[in-house]
Amino acid sequence: MATDSSNADTTGLEIAVIGMAGRFPGARDLEAFWKNLRDGVESIRFLEDADLEPSALDTAAVRSDPNYVKAAAVLEDADLFDAGYFGVTPKEAEVMDPQQRVFLECAVEALEHAGYDTERFKGRIGVYAGARTDTYVFNLFSNPAALGGLDPFEIGLGNDLAFLTTRVAHRLNLRGPAYSVHTACSTALVALHLAGQALLADECRMAVAGGVAINVPQNVGYLYQYGGIVSPDGHCRAFDAKAAGTIFGSGIGLVVLKRLEDALADGDTIHAVIKGSAINNDGAVKASFTAPSVQGQATVIKDALAAAEVSADSINYVEAHGTGTALGDPIEVRALTKAFGNKTKGRRTIPIGSVKTNVGHLDAAAGSASLLKAILAMKHQQLPPSLHFESANPQIDFDSGPFYVNTALQPWPRGRTPRRAGVSSFGIGGTNAHVILEEAPATATTSASRPWELLVLSARSHTALDTATARLAQHLESHPELSLADVAHTLQVGRKAHSHRRVLVARDVQDAVRVLRMAEPQRVLTATHETSQRPVSFLFSDAGVGTPLESLYRSEPVFRAEVDACEKLLRSPLVLNLAATLYPEDGSRPSLPEPVSAVARFVEQYALARLWMSWGIV
Fold this sequence. Notes:
Elements: E1 15-23, H1 30-38, E2 45-46, H2 60-63, E3 68-69, E4 71-72, H3 90-94, H4 98-114, E5 125-131, H5 136-141, H6 152-159, H7 163-172, E6 178-180, H8 187-200, E7 206-213, E8 222-223, E9 251-259, H9 260-266, E10 272-281, H10 294-308, E11 317-319, H11 328-340, E12 350-353, H12 356-359, H13 366-380, E13 382-383, E14 403-405, E15 410-411, E16 420-426, E17 431-439, E18 453-459, H14 462-478, H15 484-493, E19 500-506, H16 509-516, E20 524-528, H17 547-555, H18 557-574, H19 578-582, H20 596-614
Parallel strand pairs: 5-6, 5-7, 11-12, 11-16, 12-14
Antiparallel strand pairs: 1-9, 1-10, 2-4, 3-8, 7-9, 10-17, 13-15, 16-17, 18-19, 19-20
Helix pairs in contact: 1-13, 4-7, 10-11, 14-16, 17-18, 18-20
């Protein structure tokens, strides 16, 4: 793996993002999330009376109030959960907070995206995350029949925020720290910061970090109050003159982290680099407990820049907290301007934006949404638009600082330094977090050495196996640039092995898509694995030598090395170059006399056995 020289200026404290997973309003995965961001889609659902779900908090009087806003940022399928996959009983799943269910599923997705099977990873994996205050439990206690005789302790296990991360550690067999965090709106970035510190302290080798927020029920509105935090019309207009509040919503975002030097050594796919991060609290010097602080926000941004050891003028973009409140937006821009000072490239040179204009304020997951937006923008080298901005809040003086609101999709060119972004998340109560992101170092393209690649899939049922097969075909079809060798490797070592299995061989991505779509069923083997204790025996043919194994000699280093080692030992008694005789450049079939043919058969079979053993077949 080759790194770009412009990224070689490292401190040794960088953290690599090697895996990601997210589900947001209007987006079931990160590809859909990016498409919505790129296309400027607002994913707020405006409800009719018939859409409103029953809620213990929304009385008929509240819903008839003229200030009741029928808008919601909804996470699709939050009520669905594959309990059997995690060994969870149906009753246990029924009383478990949907935040904890979705978090379990997304933790698996993020680790698979990183290419790791937790059962085979030898190092410790930590979990650092938080969730919004559980509202699902209100529905449980209002419906005693749903409790099924469970006692309060059992109900608490499924709903207490303390068990969000420890349940993942238990179900996925993770042995690093499991740390549940709750700092209101800044929860996800605070969790990210703590995970990075744990990696640097060697408390774990890999970490999952992020936040989740699911409001139950989801299809409900809210009561607007003048001067409050929520929007009067269901839109978040960050930094705009019409900004009057935000809208809260549901979502989840997780990243998998490693120290950069470890990720490079292990050959991981790196999506972005965390150059530095910082957290602090405003303290008492502010208008109220819920009010933000210029000094607190400016300090945390300065501290993150110092931790990253980069200057403010190397930052190309800021993903702001951007709640769209009349008080919060001006304070945030003043804090940014104070932190950046006059060390930047001029007035209105640094674009800022807020993902809340797309999906609403995701509470404990807000920082995850912001972080993933910035990472995806770096990967696609484009800055997506921040929505609903027409003219600046009159309390914001953009002319006195380097910032402007980015309102249209634009290229993100590379300058004299790598692409860098600042990401902010500020919690009610004053816990602030800021992260300095840098684009991933350039890596050398994997060179395929094998003419054929073995693709393996597994699932817990035949139906799930068919679904996995179709999804892989679709993914490869959408990403023809992928290396089939990398895909094959990840499927073999980065996925948990289940009982229903399917294998096939393919020459390239296009060939793999064709076979996965069952265009050539004779090239696909599907079976059920019944035991992991079945013994392995090596059976060798007494047939001739040469051409059938020539491709292994050309493409497999272990096979070639063993043949060459035997050739050196046998060169003198045989008085010939065995490898050159067996595998001539012109591809002709050798005709060897006995006993040379018998010796050659042994050499090939010995080399083949050693190759199998190098693959773990013993």
